[in-house]
Amino acid sequence: MITSLKLENFRIFTDLEIKPLQRINLFAGANNTGKTGILEALYLLFGDTLQLKQLPSAFRTSTLSIGSQQNTSDDFETFWKSLVYDRQSQLSAIINATKEPGIEIGCGVLSFPNDRMWMVYGGREDTTHPKTPSVTIVANQILGHDPNPSATKFVVLSTRPEHPARDAEFYNQVALSEEGEEKLMQLLREVDPRLQRLRYAKLPGTSQPLVYANFAGVKSALSITQTGQGFSKLFSLFCQMLVSKAEVLLIDEIENGLYYETMPQIWKGIATLAASENIQVFATTHSRECLIAAHETMKAQPGYDFALHRLQRVNGRIEAVTHDQGMLEVALKSGLEVR
Fold first, then answer.
1. CA angle 256–232–24, rounded 5-degree value
2. Three-class SS of residue 313?
3. What's the predicted TM-score (pTM) here?
C-alpha cells in the first residue's frame, strides 16, 4: 500500500500532497478539481509500457475510442501533452508516493517541444533530477526502455459498458478456484437476494460463452448482459478483484449506473474483497449518498480503513482536505458540503 501521494506540475496541480492514504480512498470535489487526474497519476505511477498505451482511453474519451480511422498522434496532442501543467517553464511533472515501509517510488514526465516526452521511473530523487528515460513517448508510439521498478498490478473499473465475454472468462476462473464461486455468490446476493445460481454456458446459435443467472421468480436464466447495469457492473468488478491478484483498484465515478439504495451493499462487497485480497482502492464520486454509504459501511467493519479526500480550489490552486472518521462524522452531522 502507498501511504501518501504528491503531485507537482501535473495536470491542473501545481503542488498537491494527499495523506494519509488508507486501504479505501474516495475522492470528491467540484467539477474540474482533478479527481480523474488523481487516478491517471496512479495509473502512470504503477503502469508498464503496455498499460501506458491504454491510458488515454482508460478514464476519458480518446481519439482511439472514437474510431479506428483516427490517428494516434491526436492523443499525443490532446492527452499526453496535457499531463504537464506548465510546459513553458520546462518543469517536469512529478508523481511521488511513499510505499510501506517507507519506500519512495516515483514517476517523472518531461515534455519537449519536438513532439517527444520522457517517462522516468525510480525513487523521489530519480524523478526530480531525471537522467535516463524509462519510456519515450513520441507523436504516434510509446517506446519502452527500462522496466518500471514501481510497476504494480492494478484493475481499472471503467464507466463504459463491461465486456461480457471477458467477464465470462473471469467468472470461469473464479468458479474453478477454491471457494471462489461461493464468495462471489455471497457478494452478489447482498446486492440482489433473488440470485439463485450462476452458470457459464454457450447457447446454440451464439458465438461465445457468457454467464447466465437464475433469479427467484424469473422462469428463464438471464445473461448477465440482460440484468441491470448495476448488477452487471458489480459482477465484472467482483470477478476481476477475485482473479486478478491486483494490488490496486481504480474506479472513476463509482456511482455511475448504480442505484443509490444499493450503495451500502456495494461498499460492503468492495471492503470485504479489498481486505481479503489485499487491494488498495482509489475511487471518485460526485454523490453525497455514495460517500455517506461508504462512511457508514466502513464504520461497521472491524477497522475504519477509509478516508475521504476532498479536492477544492483555494486561491487558484487545488488543495486536498483529508477526512478521517471523526472529521467526516462531524461534517455529515453538521450538513457541511463534503462532495
1. 55
2. strand
3. 0.88
Pick 156-245+256-299+323-334's CATH classification: 3.40.50, 3.90.105, 2.30.30, 2.160.20. 3.40.50
Taking the C-alpha atoms of residue 287 and residue 252, their distance in angstroms, rounded to an integer, is: 12
Amino acid at 185: M
Distance (Å, whole) CA 97 – CA 16: 12
DSSP state of 339: -
Whether the pLDDT of residue 53 is over 80: the answer is yes
Q: Is 216 exposed, middle or buried (0-12, 13-18, 19+ CB in 10 A)?
A: exposed
Strand order in the sheet with 210-215: 195-201, 210-215, 222-223
The residues with which 111 forms a beta bridge, in sequence order, are: 117
Cβ–Cβ under 8 Å, residues 99 and 1: yes
Residue 66 phi/psi, 5° resolution?
-85, -40
Cell numbers for 203, please give them.
447457447
Between 23 and 68, the more confident residue is: 23
Q: CA nearest 281: which of 56, 57, 21, 31?
A: 21
| Of residues 28, 7, 74, 51, the one with CA closest to residue 254 | 28
Q: Which helix (H) or strand (E) holds 53?
A: none
Residues in the chain: 339
Dist. CA 180–CA 8, nearest whole Å: 42
Residue with the three cell numbers 487526474: 37
CB atoms within 10 A of CB 7: 26
| pLDDT tens digits, 172-206 | 999 988 888 999 999 899 888 999 999 999 888 88
Give the span between the Cα atoms of 136 and 292, in whole angstroms: 43
**What is the C-alpha separation between 35 and 23, in angstroms, rounded?**
18
Give, in order, the Cα–Cα distances in Å from 33 to each of 59, 62, 68, 117, 309.
15, 20, 31, 25, 12
Stretch (H or E) spanning 137: strand 135-138
User: What H or E segment, with its residue span, contains residue 34?
Assistant: none
- 7/38 Cα distance (integer angstroms): 9
Bridge partners, 210 (sequence order): 201
